[in-house]
Specification:
Helix content: 40-55%
Shape: rod-shaped
Largest sheet: 3 strands, antiparallel
Oligomer: single chain
Number of helices: 2
Order of helices and strands: HHEEE
Strand order of the largest sheet: 1-2-3
Distance between the termini: 136 Å
Radius of gyration: 36 Å
């Protein structure tokens, strides 16, 4: 008797054997996507960090320019103060000098990024020299 019960089992899988997966699985490329997202996040972080450093540096330049403008204006040399402040301030900075009684206030402001409405400023107050002296 040539029954099929005792025949070869080649090509058949037993119910307990794990199913074979194809070389191209469902999660192929997931590591690449995760790496790309991590690089994008790192790039955004670095751009924001550099922007913050630039903002701090520009604020310091505005404060220095305002200090010199106020000091020289208090000595009676506002034109020289504007020239010195223009060299110290960021390019395109706006300078304002406001006398108020026996003091003078200098405000220097500059835009950080052209299209965005972000500005930094520096403010300084100095007492006028020779006011109240006998």
């Amino acid at each position: 008797m040539t029954g099929r019960a005792g025949g070869s089992t080649a090509g058949r899988t037993s119910p307990s054997a794990p199913a074979r997966r194809s070389p191209v699985s469902d999660d192929a490329g997931a590591v690449t996507v995760e790496a790309a997202l991590a690089l994008c996040a790192l790039t955004v972080f670095l751009v924001l960090a550099l922007g913050a450093l630039v903002a701090v540096a520009q604020t310091m330049r505005c404060a220095d320019a305002a200090r010199e403008l106020a000091r020289l204006a208090a000595r009676g040399e506002p034109d020289r103060g504007r020239a010195v402040a223009a060299r110290l301030a960021p390019s395109g900075a706006r300078m304002e000098l406001v006398p108020d009684g026996d003091t003078v206030t200098a405000l220097v402001s500059a835009r950080l990024v052209g299209p965005l409405p972000l500005t930094v400023d520096g403010r300084a107050v100095a007492a006028l020299e020779g006011v109240g002296s006998p």
